[in-house]
Design a protein that fits this description.
binds flavin-adenine dinucleotide, 215 residues, FAD/NAD(P)-binding domain
């Protein structure tokens, strides 16, 4: 933060202060910002409901939302969002979020400024980060048993969910592939079939896993 910014916005916020949502949320959007309107009555409205009537900004790092999905889905949803009044900031990264509020109650909306790499400064009451998630395996002691972890902390497994250590397996989100409930369940079923049920070679096929987008 340069000195002029720090005079106006003395405190830089940490991520944990920005959201009161579960830390491992995953949404395909980079960031959702709800703008703080200037009048106190509109601010009250925003406090009650982020998504009904509040000015909303969506920052995405690329051209389109849902970048891993079919272009038809991307275009249709993006156009619809723009039509409904959401301000989409394409090819935009957030540089920092600051506030001039001293000791804010992080469980309630408070004034923040979102600074983008395009030089924009967007005032907001609520900022929702939706930038993906990874496994929190740092302090599990996994290193002590010698299990390989990927750079992002996910447990590395082979196609049979087996780690590099015999008799240690990983299924579900912690192994980092297809982070979906039915996938975790299916992988667990296959693994138990194989280990306890005598079903030789049973394993989950991770190809062509269907997904649904709620918007
Ligand atoms: C916001 C959101 C929306 C989602 N929506 C969908 C959806 O619509 N459809 C879908 O299929 N999937 C959805 N998912 C993904 C789905 O929740 C996960 O894929 C699924 O829960 C993975 O199951 P899991 O058993 O691997 O992990 P989890 O369900 O996360 O279970 C891991 C458990 O381990 C516990 N744990 C963690 N560390 C320790 C420790 N050190 N010691 C003991 N216990 C520990 C945790 O408390 C947790 O109970 C969503 C996820 C999020 C975050």
């Amino acid at each position: 933060m340069d000195s002029s910014t720090s005079r106006i916005f003395p405190r830089r916020l940490s991520l944990s202060e920005l959201v009161t949502l579960p830390s491992n949320w995953q949404v395909s959007f980079t960031l959702l910002v709800s703008h703080r309107n200037s009048s106190s009555s509109s601010r009250r409205r925003l406090t009650k409901s982020v998504f009904t009537g509040a000015e909303t900004h969506l920052m995405i790092r690329h051209e389109k939302i849902l970048k891993a999905f079919d272009p038809l889905l991307q275009d249709t949803l993006q156009e619809h969002m723009v039509k409904t009044g959401i301000h989409i900031h394409q090819n935009t990264n957030v540089k920092k979020v600051t506030t001039e509020v001293e000791n804010p109650d992080i469980h309630k909306p408070f004034r923040k400024i979102v600074h983008t790499d395009k030089g924009e400064e967007i005032e907001a009451d609520i900022v929702l980060w939706a930038i993906g998630r990874h496994s929190l395996t740092d302090d599990l002691g996994i290193d002590k048993v010698g299990v390989d972890l990927a750079k992002n902390g996910d447990v590395v497994v082979d196609e049979y969910q087996k780690t590099n250590v015999d008799n240690i397996f990983a299924i579900g989100d912690v192994q980092g592939k297809e982070l979906l409930t039915p996938v975790a369940i299916a992988a667990g079923r296959r693994l138990s079939n194989r280990i306890y049920g005598g079903v030789k070679g049973d394993k989950l096929d991770y190809n062509n896993v269907p997904t649904v987008v709620f918007s």
